[in-house]
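Most newcomers find our protein records easier to grasp once they have seen one. Nothing more is needed to start thinking about how sequence determines fold. Here is such a record, shown just as it appears in the course material:
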Amino acid sequence: MADISGDIPTIADIKSHVISFASSNIKDERTSVDIKEYLNCLQPKFDILEEKKKAQGWLDWAKQLKTLKIVRSSVPIAILPNGYRGVLIDVKVNSPHAPDDKIYDANEKIRQRVARGNCFLQIENGPHNGTTCVLYALKKFTGGLGDDDDRDQGDNFTWKKYFTKPLESTERVVATRKANGEAAHLSCQIIDGHFVMCGGSKNVHLLFRRKEDIDRYKEPRYLIAREVCETVMHYLELMDQNDRFLLLSFLSHTHFTAVFEILSPVHQHVEDLSHLPRNELRFITWTEINIDSSNDGELCTVPPHVAIEIARALKLPTVDYDVIPMADLNNRMIEIRKGYNFEGEVLYFLDEKASVIGLLKKKTIWYILCRATREKVKYAASACLKSPEGFSISNAIRKLETRLDQIQSWLGLDNDGLKHWKELTSKFMRWTVKRVEDSKITHSDIADRFPVIWKEFLEESQSTDNIQFTWKEPEGSDD
């Protein structure tokens, strides 16, 4: 599949294809103009010697920092063509068993230079000898307290540190639906007439040309990366050769990374994905290799609405989006908070040139409370199994209610709505722990099948989690 037969599409061919798609499928005139203007400016040119120099300089910088972790792994023989030997180098923020927020929050250089997904390929022999960056995903962005799953301290304004310009520079906002899955990445390059793909999860990537290559990465750390790449191959196999070549050629010409969420019916977080027959991809955006920090004025390579339409033209399934004026932002955030049965949205802030100057996660109250419930019930189930004699259900409920009180203070939730949620979730805690004790539910079920268990509890108890809240999010300084 990854071997090239015949001519590959040029960047001009791909632009023409996308413009034709836009003319037939996009009704919003400004979006059509944005697409044409972006494609007119897209003239990818790369100096391989300069790319190798940048990559080595970035890695030399990373090696000096204890806050970064570098993992090297040999590419299995024969995945690279013509007997080339290779090493993949993954670099991530070094925060073992803890969120990476503290490191990103405290270090501007790391925010500028280290994406959530940085992968380099070192070829050790032959004419391509040297090291290049082959995959560079989205830079870190965050939300206020409650909106970021891993953040439980700080303030509601830390997210502004991640903006490259003042919030007042915003002209439009692109709101994309937040897919409740795992991060997934894909890039591609052409080596001696072969498409060589790099794909994986947030911090672990692998190199492959064919489906059977993926099975050669046996280590447990590749578990999610293998799932991502197998899902990618499934979508590529569904495409005809022309569409497949368009996509892989676009990635090869531009050196972009495609950023997705992978939705899995066997790894469900909070949203119920049981209806999916298999793993699915949802395209989010394209990112460029920006390891020299020369383009710090924008956080995304392509304006998000333009990126999504290009992906649709290349036959990729995408998240949904809306473009809204800055004046409507507050109303949009209120509607997100009121949402039910979905995680929330990611808001991209665009300046007058349609450059992305900042991103913000905004989540539904329903999701924030469900996720907190999931985490506390999961912890209680683990404690119950580990030490049945010392386990106290009342202590577990107290810890859950303390967490809900924290969320109330972050979001300014009303007392009546929170009281109903506490009553509901204390019943759920007792119900779930009893089933764990009776071996009807496993600890891993709570981690991977929470939405299914939650739905079963609601039906059995004839309860609803569609609880209406009023709220007033705390105000504060922008410092």
